[in-house]
Amino acid sequence: MSPLLEVRDIGKTYGSVIALRDVSTVVNAGEVTCVLGDNGAGKSTLIKILAGVHQHDRGEFLVEDTPVKFASPREALDHGIATVYQDLAVVPLMSVWRNFFLGSEPTIGFGPFKALDRRKGRETTKQALSDMGIDLRDVEQPVGTLSGGERQCVAIARAVYFGAKVLILDEPTAALGVKQAGVVLKYVAQARDRGLGVVLITHNPHHAFPVADRFLLLKRGAPLGSYEKKDIDINELTRQMAGGAELEALEHELRQVEKTP
């Protein structure tokens, strides 16, 4: 079966700055591809290309084996690629169900007599959240009253409801405590089990390892390594993320300096 999404030796420059070079990975249905790296590694540039915010300069970007170069995020969305950014782009004072439908609200009536179908909006939101295993007390409550983890879960359920095939999650656990991060990862797994291809962006290997099927490690815009889960363990993943080889070289260098009379 063809990957839902694939990039081959993709690259992006901004003037003389090389933001991304020679990056390749695949996203399959029912799998999680995790992109790991520290700040400045190129994670943001990669997801902006996948989400249609920026266009790549080199390499190939394929959606279900068809080469694409999105002109806008709307075009990416039309191809079934939904992105949930770290700031979530929610309206805190607006209810959960209004945020769920933001820009696509259900209506009743015709022409100038159209009105917001509040009942359908509430019922649909409650059912969509329930289908993902999310049980909110009241979908009329302002979304700003939810915890960070609950807000991430609402955004994931929204993308699933509106027909996303590929779900890109930008650092969904970055600002969360241990328990809330666990809740979000549970719903990432739910989305995967429903057949979506998930791209999980994170700098935390301990959040990535339990849910990911493959890992792409980036450093300064270039691939540091690409692994399937069976080929790497959490200790080696953490070592590479922490710059283990560089730390070992530094330690060796310091020992040499200490030995010098």
Short description, anyone?
It comes from Amycolatopsis heterodermiae. This is ATP-binding cassette domain-containing protein. With 261 residues, the protein is an alpha/beta fold.
Characteristic key phrases:
261 residues; alpha/beta; Rossmann fold; four-stranded antiparallel beta sheet; 12 strands
Largest sheet: 6 strands, mixed
Count of DSSP-assigned helices:
9
Cα gyration radius (Å): 21 Å
The tally of strands reads: 12
Number of domains: 1
User: What CATH first level would be assigned?
Assistant: Alpha Beta
**CATH topological fold name:** Rossmann fold
Low-confidence stretches: none
Q: What characteristic shape results from the CA principal axes?
A: globular
> What fraction of residues sit in β-strands?
25-35%
- Average of per-residue pLDDT values: 84
Spatial sequence of strands, sheet with the most strands: 6-9-10-3-11-12
Name of the CATH architecture:
3-Layer(aba) Sandwich
CATH superfamily membership, which one?
A: P-loop containing nucleotide triphosphate hydrolases
Which range best describes the helical content: under 10%, 10-25%, 25-40%, 40-55%, 55-70% or over 70%? 25-40%
N-C termini distance: 63 Å
Task: Classify the secondary structure makeup into a structural class.
Answer: alpha/beta
- The ordered H/E elements are EEEHEEHEHEEHHEHEHEEHH
Protein name: ATP-binding cassette domain-containing protein
Domain ABC transporter: 5-245
Organism: Amycolatopsis heterodermiae
InterPro entries: AAA+_ATPase, ABC_carbohydrate_import_ATPase, ABC_transporter-like_ATP-bd, ABC_transporter-like_CS, P-loop_NTPase
